[in-house]
């Protein structure tokens, strides 16, 4: 009988083939009649499944310790926590495992701090990417079988181990340490920058090396061994690009963008014969394009944008039959575009960007209507024709097909042969002009009569005593909101923002006004009109940098995405944008003139984009446009109300009240996130306030937004942010005696204390208590009441409930004492780690 039941269960599993594993398990459950364990029928429920399936949780060390003789272990994309240390697993597991993947979890601490890695005798692939590991990179000295190491997107720091890049007994073929905080490359043997020139990467087995998005500096390595892919982008490498001349013929992909490299492009004919992608954008390169560039037989992608290159375009550059992408924008190229740039031979070209240069003359006529271009448009599924944005803005003297030429320039109109054709065209032109003038005259007369009649009616209506919409009604919102579909003109921007509604802007995205702006923001907007002076770019034609590999979109897709304005701050306007892929973004359009220079802005933004924490809305990217006001900061949109709305919003009835346990959870999550920022990243949040704290229900998950934006701002922009914090009651007293105040770890602690007071009192930080001239904000009022032993009168009645003030809920007074410590003078304030420990010790 048991055998029959088992066969039936197998049949049920077979019926579930083609569906997900979860569906198969649920289908299997339906055939189970008796559950002796009590763990299947009672727990397998489709309604309880997470959106990402069945993610595992728990301590990773406890799980690995239970594994036995296994060769392939994949624990990626779960929610495991804990750290990795010497006691990992049992001897059978350690000696037998060949593939270990623990990526995309919540693992913390140092990687093998007691050098436990040598015990892995047969380990070939180790992937610990996308976690929160800190400290130095392990040496992996005695793991002779290790072929692949992936540690990207952690917080690893220090220098590279000596043995990873040198010739040794290791057979390492792939090393990915990107998106970390590595700073020192000068301690690596074989890449010694401290004495003499750079030595070589001597490993003969290493094929893929990715050190991008770190803090590495110094000159480039002189040799890269047998590497086929080398990515050193988004660092601070300096020196001359000529060091790449000895990189040999093994390399296929070179990524050196976003560094500080100088010099000119190499011009050797015997190298880079296998090169497929060459990206050296955003550096300080000068000189002309070398003739050898058109001889690389396998080259597919060229990106030299954002440099100082000059000279003319090489006709040989377009001779390749494999080139798909060419980006030469933001340089100093001049002259005309070669007439034979687009031919039958190079129909593979998909993307060409020559914008922001100084090209002159007409485009080759065959780019607009030749059969070669027709073949190109048919074979390139993403390209109808080269858009004007590939050449403009910039190149003001360049004439596009079917475009009016600049004054004094040539055009691409075909000549008309024969006097009859010319005469006919001249006659048609004269007739058209006469007809057009007649139509305009008639329309002008009709419009004049209509306007005159309307004015007469309006005058009679006003004198007749009929009701006219008053200015007070307009200000109170009784007038229907007007939706604009154009970019605000300079004239519109000069209006006092406190007297006009938030307009809808068609660029960079179509937007609608939001009704969910918090009261604190609305009050700040009315008190600080300058906070609303934000321009909107006409078209996204600049550079888009994304830090999240799961996001893939172009500036054009972002430009066309429908969006709505959901708030304003001292930084600019915040929009909710919905991409065609379904991804929802929060896009902040920065005010004009508050962003740092492009180089420094990009460097700081990349650092912020590398910060990851469960209670932080991480920066996912930024856009840098050609105009001053075209600066966008991109992050994930979180559909959750702010703490300000919970505590003192105008429509609190729509939100559930926060219990004392909920408020402690909010404070703990905040302190946990700040502890990470202060200790692991050594940077302050800098803009803590209740409107920047989002609360996801039902688990009261807290998310901090707008972190460390002062690192992207000029001194004037930072000063405006500090003044904004002062107006809202979050400014520490020591800032009043400083000429150039800047956010610090101590100011974060003060702001945290004020927010904790908001949680305990239910009042806004900027509330002025009536009848007490001695205090000006919430912190002073609570401090005064506590000094008079009347602190019990400060607590929010929603916390107290039906209890009398004589019998306070357990832990309430302890939380108040922590808040009062946070608002002490700077020298007496505790650090945020101590605050987190004290809050964690409170038992409610």
Write the layout of secondary structure elements.
Blueprint: H1 2-15, H2 21-30, E1 57-59, H3 60-64, E2 72-74, E3 79-84, H4 91-96, E4 99-101, E5 106-111, E6 125-127, E7 132-135, E8 148-150, E9 155-159, E10 174-176, E11 181-184, E12 208-210, E13 217-218, E14 229-231, E15 236-237, E16 253-255, E17 277-279, E18 286-287, E19 301-303, E20 308-311, E21 325-327, E22 332-335, E23 351-353, E24 358-362, H5 366-369, H6 371-379, E25 397-399, H7 419-463, H8 471-475, H9 490-493, H10 519-527, E26 543-546, H11 555-559, E27 563-568, E28 572-578, E29 584-590, H12 598-609, E30 619-624, E31 631-636, H13 643-648, H14 660-681, E32 693-696, E33 701-704, H15 715-727, H16 745-761, H17 778-787, H18 797-800, H19 812-822, H20 832-841
Parallel strand pairs: 1-3, 2-4, 3-5, 4-6, 5-7, 6-8, 7-9, 8-10, 9-11, 10-12, 12-14, 13-15, 14-16, 16-17, 17-19, 18-20, 19-21, 20-22, 21-23, 22-24, 24-25
Antiparallel strand pairs: 26-30, 27-28, 28-29, 29-31, 30-31, 32-33
Helix pairs in contact: 1-2, 14-16, 14-20, 16-19
């Amino acid at each position: 009988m048991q055998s029959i039941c088992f066969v039936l269960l197998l049949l049920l599993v077979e019926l579930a083939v083609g569906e997900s594993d979860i569906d198969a398990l649920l289908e299997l459950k339906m055939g189970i009649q008796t559950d002796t364990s009590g763990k299947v029928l009672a727990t397998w429920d489709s309604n309880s499944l997470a959106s990402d399936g069945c993610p595992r949780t728990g301590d990773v060390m406890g799980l690995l310790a239970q594994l036995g003789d296994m060769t392939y272990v994949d624990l990626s994309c779960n929610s495991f926590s804990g750290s990795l240390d010497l006691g990992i697993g049992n001897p059978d597991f350690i000696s037998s495992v060949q593939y270990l993947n623990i990526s995309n979890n919540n693992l913390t601490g140092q990687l093998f701090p007691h050098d436990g890695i040598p015990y892995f005798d047969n380990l070939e692939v180790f992937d610990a990417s996308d976690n929160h590991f800190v400290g130095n990179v392990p040496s992996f000295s005695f793991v002779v079988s290790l072929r692949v190491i992936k540690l990207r997107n952690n917080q690893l720091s220090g220098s590279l181990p000596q043995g990873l890049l040198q010739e040794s007994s290791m057979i390492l073929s792939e090393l990915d340490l990107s998106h970390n905080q590595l700073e020192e490359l000068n301690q690596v043997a074989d890449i010694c920058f401290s004495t003499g020139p750079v030595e070589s990467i001597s490993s003969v087995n290493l094929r893929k090396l990715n050190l991008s998005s770190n803090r590495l500096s110094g000159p480039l390595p002189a040799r890269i061994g047998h590497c086929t892919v080398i990515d050193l982008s988004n660092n601070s490498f300096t020196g001359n690009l000529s060091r790449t001349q000895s990189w040999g013929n093994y390399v296929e992909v070179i990524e050196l963008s976003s560094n500080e490299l100088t010099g000119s492009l190499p011009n050797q004919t015997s190298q880079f014969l296998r090169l497929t992608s060459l990206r050296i954008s955003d550096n300080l390169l000068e000189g002309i394009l070398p003739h050898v560039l058109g001889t690389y037989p396998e080259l597919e992608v060229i990106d030299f944008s954002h440099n100082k290159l000059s000279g003319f375009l090489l006709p040989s550059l377009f001779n390749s039959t494999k080139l798909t992408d060419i980006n030469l924008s933001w340089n100093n190229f001049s002259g005309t575009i070669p007439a034979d740039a687009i031919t039958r031979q190079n129909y593979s070209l998909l993307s060409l960007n020559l914008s922001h240069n100084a090209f002159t003359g007409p485009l080759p006529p065959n780019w607009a209507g030749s059969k070669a271009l027709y073949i190109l448009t048919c074979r390139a599924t993403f390209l109808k024709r080269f858009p004007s944005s590939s050449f403009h803005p910039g190149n003001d003297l360049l004439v596009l097909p079917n475009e009016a030429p600049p004054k004094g320039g040539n055009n691409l109109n075909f000549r008309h042969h024969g006097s009859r054709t010319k005469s006919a065209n001249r006659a048609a032109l004269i007739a058209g002009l006469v007809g057009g003038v007649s139509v305009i005259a008639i329309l002008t007369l009709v419009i004049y009569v209509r306007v005159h009649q309307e004015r007469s009616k309006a005058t009679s209506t006003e004198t007749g005593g009929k009701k006219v919409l008053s200015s007070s009604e307009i200000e109170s919102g009784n007038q229907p909101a007007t939706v604009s579909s154009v970019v605000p003109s300079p004239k519109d921007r000069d209006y006092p923002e406190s007297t006009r509604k938030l307009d809808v802007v068609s660029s960079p995205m179509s937007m609608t006004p939001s009704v969910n702006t918090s009261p604190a923001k609305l009050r700040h907007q009315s008190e600080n009109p300058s906070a609303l002076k934000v321009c909107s770019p006409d078209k996204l034609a600049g550079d888009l940098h994304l830090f999240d590999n799961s996001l893939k979109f172009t500036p054009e897709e972002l430009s066309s995405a429908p969006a709505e304005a959901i708030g304003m701050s001292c930084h600019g306007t915040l929009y909710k944008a919905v991409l065609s892929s379904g991804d929802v973004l929060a896009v902040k359009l920065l005010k004009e003139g508050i962003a740092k220079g492009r180089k420094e802005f990009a460097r700081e933004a990349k650092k912020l984009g590398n910060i990851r924490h469960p209670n932080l809305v991480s920066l996912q990217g930024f856009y840098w446009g050609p105009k001053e006001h075209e600066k966008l900061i991109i992050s994930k949109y979180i559909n959750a109300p702010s703490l300000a709305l919970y505590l003192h919003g105008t429509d609190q009835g729509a939100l559930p009240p926060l219990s004392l346990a909920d408020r402690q959870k909010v404070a703990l999550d905040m302190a946990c996130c700040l502890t990470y920022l202060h200790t692991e990243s050594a940077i302050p949040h800098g803009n803590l306030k209740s409107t920047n704290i989002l609360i996801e229900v039902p688990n009261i998950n807290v998310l901090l937004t707008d972190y460390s934006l002062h690192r992207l701002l000029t001194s004037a922009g930072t000063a405006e942010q500090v003044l904004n914090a002062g107006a809202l009651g979050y400014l520490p007293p020591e800032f009043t005696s400083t000429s150039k105040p800047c956010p610090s770890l101590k100011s974060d602690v003060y702001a945290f204390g004020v927010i904790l007071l908001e949680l305990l009192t239910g009042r806004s930080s900027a509330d002025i208590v009536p009848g007490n001239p001695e205090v000006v904000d919430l912190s002073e009022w609570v401090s005064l009441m506590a000094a008079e032993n009347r602190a019990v009168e400060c607590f929010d009645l929603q916390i107290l409930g039906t209890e009398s003030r004589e019998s306070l809920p357990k832990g309430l007074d302890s939380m108040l004492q922590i808040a009062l410590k946070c608002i002490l003078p700077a020298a007496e304030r505790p650090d945020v780690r101590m605050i987190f420990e004290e809050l964690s010790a409170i038992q409610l």
